[in-house]
Design brief:
With 239 residues, the chain is of the alpha/beta class. It has one domain (3-225): 3-Layer(aba) Sandwich (Rossmann fold), CATH 3.40.50. It contains six helices and eight strands, in the order αβαβααββββααββ. A six-stranded mixed beta sheet has the order 2-5-1-6-7-8, with helices on both faces. The protein has a two-stranded antiparallel sheet with strand order 3-4. A hairpin with a 7-residue loop joins strand 7 and strand 8 (231-234). Helix 3 (69-84) crosses helix 6 (193-214). It starts with a helix and ends in a 5-residue tail after the last strand.
């Protein structure tokens, strides 16, 4: 499927869903997948396409609600040590990495409660959020939201939260590891390949498999193993 076609098809599905099920308030959309599955890149391109479809779009990174790089790496290192000593993987580890309660209370609940009866737009205010997972960057931010707005949230393990619509970006753990290492090199922050491989293959991927098995099905599943050949491969609205 062509690069442009995947975003046109996805935007059309979101447009139709909003018009049928989320008419009188902004619509929240989770975009999930393993590390470096292309969540942020996909969200940016999809947002552009939604804006073309006359649906004002905002992207809010789920990592704004991250616990921070330093405490997260401590948790990952403890998990790797536990696996190395023969202990089972903590499949719920992600609950210690992201502040899901804050995502629900600050983001989803606030979106649902915005009142457009007397105004064309409202301010969505987020407090105590991080800048790109960086420690010590806590700040507040606000967004102008209209009734027809679509708010995309790219992150991991989001489907247990009451988002209106969910998209899962499918990628193999091998591709995830490769992209993570290459991205670090590009940013001038080389990663230890062995630790990166363990983080993904021994922790994130098993947790993602278990998560997908117990949570509701996503509305769309998109194969992201090859950015030049992205395609819809499943989900509730795959046809």
């Amino acid at each position: 499927m062509g690069f442009v076609d995947i975003f046109t098809r996805t935007a059309t599905k979101i447009y139709d869903y909003k018009n049928e099920f989320v008419k009188d308030r902004p619509m929240s959309v989770s975009i999930e997948g393993l590390s470096n599955s292309g969540k942020s890149t996909f969200s940016g391109a999809l947002c552009d396409k939604l804006n073309e479809s006359k649906l004002p779009c905002i992207t809010i990174e789920g990592d704004a609600f991250h616990v921070g790089y330093t405490p997260a790496m401590k948790i990952y290192n403890e998990l790797i040590t536990n696996v190395k000593t023969g202990n089972p993987v903590d499949l719920d580890f992600y609950k210690k990495i992201w502040k899901f309660g804050e995502i629900e209370s600050q983001l989803i609940s606030q979106i649902s409660s915005l009142n457009f009866s007397s105004s064309v737009s409202n301010r969505l205010l987020l407090e105590n959020i991080l800048d790109n997972k960086k420690d010590g960057t806590e700040h507040s931010d606000s967004y102008e939201v209209e009734k027809n707005s679509v708010i995309l949230v790219p992150s991991m393990y989001l489907r247990h939260l009451p988002f209106d619509y969910s998209i899962f970006l499918d990628v193999s753990p091998e591709i995830s590891v490769h992209r993570k290492i290459e991205r670090a090199k590009k940013d001038g922050k080389p990663r230890d390949p062995a630790i990166t491989e363990k983080m993904v293959s021994q922790i994130e991927y098993p947790a993602m498999i278990a998560y997908n098995n117990k949570e509701r099905s996503p509305h769309l599943i998109i194969d992201m193993n090859d950015f030049s050949n992205m395609k819809i491969i499943g989900g509730l609205h795959s046809h």
